[in-house]
Amino acid sequence: MCTYYFEDIKANKKVQCNTNSSNTKVTTFVADYSFDEWSSLNIKGAGWSLVNSNRISAGAEFSSIKKTLHGGMQRNSIQFGGFLNNSYLKVNNYQINEWGVTTGITSSLRGGMRIGASLEAGVRGTSQANLIKENYIQLNLNFLYLDFFNSKGRRYD
Fold it and tell me: Can you give the pLDDT at residue 144?
């Protein structure tokens, strides 16, 4: 599915395409591409300018499902992914680029709680033309309370 965003104000134009495929309830593959048109705005400064940007990312998730009275509930999952991003910012004639890989796990706890952890490692920028190149590792921890488990099966539409 592709979407084209444009508003009648001085803003960038954006095209975004994404797809996902799930051959079973336990395996999901996703891909996403986005393009942002910034150069037509003609915004510049001393040594920098806005340029068109794009991002491509893809990943996979593998889950275990527990059968419940109302269908299935995801118990544990593991995710892997990667991305490549060409930034909208060009400094000293170098477009700021970024790439990285991600991995994550989630697990269900008792009482409708879920806990997750994800790790992202990547490289952003360049060391050419006296610019900064950043190698990074980022850890995220998530806690989620799924209150619909306390609804006793009632649905509100």
Answer: 83
**What 3-state class would DSSP assign to 149?**
helix
Name 62's Cβ contacts closer than 8 Å, sequence gap at least 6. 26, 27, 77, 78, 79
Long-range contacts of 45-52 (CB under 8 A, 24+ apart): 47/91, 47/92, 48/89, 48/90, 48/91, 48/92, 49/90, 50/88, 50/89, 50/90, 51/88, 51/89, 51/90, 51/95, 52/88
Residues whose CB falls within 8 Å of the CB of residue 132, separated by 6 or more in sequence, listed in order: 125
Stated pTM of the model: 0.76
Closest by CA to 41, choosing from 4, 14, 2, 3, is: 14
